[in-house]
Amino acid sequence: MLSTLLLNCNLEQKNKNTFSITFTDSLSKDVQDGRLLLLLAKDDKTEPRFQISDGLTTQLVFGIDVEGMKPGDEIIIDEKAFGFPIRNINDLPTGDYVVQALINRYETFNLKTGHTVKLPPDQGEGQQWNRKPGNFYSKPVKVSLDNTKTQHTTITLDQIIPAVEEPKDSKYIKHIKIQSKLLTEFWGRPMFLGAHVLLPEGFDEHPESRYPLMVFHGHFPDDFGGFSETPPPADMDTTDYSARFGIYGYRKFQAQESYNFYKQWTSKNFPRFLIIEIQHANPYYDDSYSVNSANLGPYGDAIMQELIPEIEKQFRGIGEGWARFTYGGSTGGWEALAVQMFYPDEFNGCFAACPDPIDFRAYCLVDIYKDKNAYWYESDFKKVPISSHRNYLGQIQSTMQESNYYELALGTKSRSGQQWDIWEAVYSPQGEDGYPKRIFDKESGEINKEVAAYWKEHYDLRHILERDWSTLGPKLQGKIHIYCGDMDNYYLNNAVYLMEDFLKKTNNPFYAGEVAYGDRAEHCWNGDAVNPNYVSRLRYNSMYLPKILKRIQESAPKGADTKSWRY
């Protein structure tokens, strides 16, 4: 028995991988806080930092928090690091790897709430840890690992990601950036909001005209997307393959769609509107969800009271609720519905496509009010994993546990910059440590019912509509339009079904809007029942603007300016 124990101990000692990571003082002489990541890939088709995801093709990441790391300090990555998709670094299979390290650098924020937190500020890239300007990283190296031996590898961070180039103004696209007084006060340092503004044809030639404003919500845009004054080159490479849609040459197709929209935008009879895409990346994510939040601060009020009025002032917006509309997909779909509800007099309609969960009884496949665990369906004798992503055939690509373990490898305390963590950061109350309270334990999946109750009263859009319909209903009649594919990759259609059940039963008044589903359509379906999803997802503006024009014609108050912009 003793000899067996000794043998096991020897095997444990031999089967041990350690990596030491340091950074040079040529990058910085200051101490660093952040998330230190070790990245391994089986091939060098691209750097390991660009091969990490929660999908089937992901490579390996191991992460630890560091505070006060000095130049020359050797930080050890070993079995204590949290890994994904392999949990323990000692379980790495024998083989050849391309290895890289990176630190997602944190800065200290002294919040208005009195808390001090350490978070990665956005640096103009939209909260992408692997592309964030200022982050330190190492050049990839090839390493052979043998899981029967003890091995130690040293990695030096000696590279720094350069700054992002600011987009340039053109005839049609302008850019605006303001310091927000409200957000600066909350975060304890200067905080900014920005937007890309698409000007209507004839803007300069019609200085007397004032325009309706379209707020196109979505993830962080580096510039106004889907609009190009030039067609794609005839010889543009078309060998690229879209695995999602099963077609070649999708990049050229997208470029052609952008040019087609430009031609449509400048055509004689197309509506003359302002369209904006907002930049509101924050220390937790590439997007604030456009609402006030205990953890992110008053982004809703900052956008509505500071950014939009400044845009309407500079670019001759009408500046009244009947002439503002909002639309978007996914995150933008949730935002479109949320801002229409939370600022009901400030918008005249929302078009919410494939919205993030709008009823938390269907938080994707989890009911946060009834379920005990977010990772497993449980019975007396079985534990079945809950899916987080599927393709249009229903084939599972990732589970809830896997998606959240991926995030936990990238960052603790809701700091991964990924989807589940930002929902938590937006919807949760602030914890005693200043970070968001967990809706469920990130390792076990156990749901916190107190946090769930807070979510329900503050951000469950279906619940809020039902609870407050007597006051909200009269302000929202004819304004709510929701679209979702019935094979949405993230199961977002389930919450839309629940919302529709409520809306169909409304009275005094009846909601008088629209809910529609795309047969076998995946994520980003926006109500186009004619074209396949890979086409319709590129046509949000051209899909909704004619509907908005019709709404204005039917609902504009007497004496409203419905003519100066109709040239």
TrEMBL record:
Spans through the membrane: none
SUPFAM superfamilies: alpha/beta-Hydrolases (SSF53474)
Record-given protein name: Esterase
Organism taxonomic ancestry: Bacteria, Pseudomonadati, Bacteroidota, Cytophagia, Cytophagales
